[in-house]
Amino acid sequence: MNENVKPKWDEARTAQAAELYAKSDKSIDALKAIGEAMEVSHKSVIGKLVNLGVYEVQVRERKVPVDLGPSKKELMATIRATGYDADGLEGATKPAIERVLAVLHNAV
User: Fold this and answer.
1) Rounded-to-integer distance, Cα 78 and Cα 59, Å
2) How confident is the model at residue 63 (pLDDT cuts 50, 70, 90)?
3) One domain for residues 44 and 76
């Protein structure tokens, strides 16, 4: 091993990282700031904190599903139910299929 290369994590740096993390708000921005101050990546800081058993996993908010109306498959079934030959529309976008359906409803 090259004597000029210092180890990334010695006892003092490990203690410093743990202390900085304990004083922080535990956000990803705080981890990036700690990494920048210690001249290592924030992922390296996370890895060391996990190894020490002090890292607290951030809970992510789940996205609430949005109702976008009937699916393309349902729209195609509706078009076919009108008796229209819908072959070739499978690759169309949902708005295009909705326009075709609107024209069919206006024609009836």
Assistant:
1) 42
2) confident
3) no
Give the separation between CA 45 and CA 90, rounded to whole angstroms.
49
Phi, psi of 14 (to 5 degrees): -65, -45
- Full residue range of the structural domain in which residue 18 is found: 11-52
Task: Match 């996990």 to its residue by tokens.
Answer: 50
Which token pair is 105? 């409803």
Q: Is residue 58 part of a domain?
A: no
Q: How confident is the model at residue 30 (pLDDT cuts 50, 70, 90)?
A: very high
What is the number of alpha carbons within 13 Å of residue 108 lying toward its C-beta?
11
pLDDT band of 108, cuts 50, 70, 90: low
Q: 61 — alpha (psi -120 to 50), left (phi > 0) or beta?
A: beta
Answer positive or negative: Cα dihedral of 18, 23, 28, 31. Answer: negative
Q: Taking the CA atoms of the chain, what radius of gyration do you get in angstroms?
A: 29
Q: Which two tokens stand for residue 26?
A: 């535990």
